[in-house]
Design goal:
The protein contains three helices and two strands. Helix 1 crosses helix 2 and helix 1 crosses helix 3. The termini are far apart.
C-alpha cells in the first residue's frame, strides 16, 4: 500500500510562525484576522516558495528556519507587508 503524498509550501508555515513577533514590534498594528491574512499573503508574494513533499500527516524538519539570512528575509517581507496593510486596511 502506498502512502499519500502532500505537496506543501514550507515558506507559508515559516511566515505564519514569525508573524506574531513582527506584530508585537508595532503596537499600532491591527491584529484582526483579515489584517493578519493580508500581511501573510503580501509577504509570501515577496518570498520565494520552498516546496516540500511529505507523507500526509508526517512532520518535516525546520532546518532552514535556523539560518539567519532566511529568517531575516522573512522578517523583512513581513515588515514591508505590515506597512502596506497599515496604510490601507481592508477590515
Amino acid at each position: 500500500m502506498s502512502k499519500e503524498l502532500v505537496l506543501k509550501n514550507y515558506m507559508e508555515d515559516c511566515v505564519w510562525e514569525l508573524l506574531d513577533s513582527v506584530l508585537e514590534q508595532d503596537p499600532e498594528a491591527c491584529k484582526c484576522e483579515a489584517c493578519r491574512y493580508d500581511v501573510v499573503a503580501l509577504a509570501l508574494n515577496e518570498l520565494p516558495p520552498r516546496y516540500v513533499v511529505r507523507e500526509k500527516g508526517a512532520l518535516y524538519t525546520k532546518v532552514s528556519m535556523l539560518e539567519a539570512q532566511y529568517r531575516a528575509d522573512i522578517y523583512s517581507a513581513l515588515t514591508k507587508a505590515l506597512m502596506k496593510v497599515k496604510q490601507n486596511p481592508r477590515h
